[in-house]
Amino acid sequence: MDVMNPSTRRHAASKTLYRWQSASLESHLHGLVPQWEGKALEITTEVLGANASFVNYVRHHRLQDPCTGQPVEIVEKSIRKVALVSSQEARFHRADGMLAGSTNFQYPACLGVIETPWESLIFTEFVRGMPPRMHAIAKQLALGITELESLSNDYLVSQPLAKTPLYWSMDFFRPWFLLRPRFNFARCLPALAQLGLEDERFASLAERFKAFLPLTRDMAAKARRSPRCISHMDYLRKNLFVDNGQLHLIDWSEVKVGRIGFDGGAYLGSLFRRKEMKVFLTAQAEFIEAYRAALPERFDVEQALGNLRYVFLLTALFHCLRPETVAEYREGDRMPLLLEKYTYLLGLLDKG
Fold this sequence. Notes:
Helix content: 40-55%
Low-confidence stretches: 6-13
Order of helices and strands: EHEEEHEEEHHHHHHEEEEHHHHH
Number of domains: 2
Structural class: alpha+beta
CATH class of the largest domain: Alpha Beta
CATH topology of the largest domain: Aminoglycoside 3'-phosphotransferase, Chain: A, domain 2
Number of helices: 13
Strand order of the largest sheet: 1-6-7-4-3-2
Shape: globular
Strand content: 15-25%
């Protein structure tokens, strides 16, 4: 019996348990997998690294299924609550069937979610595989992202009105997301102005980058009116694994109700931050070509690409303008590359 397969689990339709007091890991697993009830579990645990906001810990548990004797590997993530509000990652995992039928991405099966007044505990399958070279999987990511956007858009559109507040609170355009530093590149402009005083190659650039403020506001207004979908928003090498040719996507700590195109912008923004310009431009062209071809006809492809450019700009501007990035390029004697990236970004102003 595969405990990670929802069809084999015998608990209620909801995979969420609510508990009002502390309990042991063994007790949690007995509650999530009823066929294990009353059976001893021999568990070994390894602590995994975690740097997302509000994450208390991430643990990797190994045990034998007491019914079959087969090895089972589970990841437990604890996310602390603020004012008793469940995290958006927990809410995503509680949405049964949202991404059912995915073929381009594989997702870790979710054993269940345990909600207490002070934390959300998420139990998922442990995924093994090799992390990919991010620029080399542009086409594969384009197919996976269009599938993710299409399936989740169908799901959100089909939800009853009673669930509207739940998904409204996860929407990208809520203030608690928009006020985060990574979406506010303007706070980096004073440091860029100071850099211009120290290095004449960067003189006056801060004033020129101010032109992105009205541009991104206009792009945001257009994006608000476009189709909603679930957006992963965190396409980093640590969150992707290749196993037998299949691409596995993990870690939904940044998940939001975004818009068609947002995930492509997040991927390209991350790639722009980390790669040389030649590598980035080649991957960007491959991604956009594949994304255009794969996006279902019911979506406006130009609108989706506009949304992609919006999130790309938010991500690329913040990460390239922040003082920490400038310091990294200085220490690595790579200031010409940083100037090349600034020149590329400023060139996008003419394209709108």
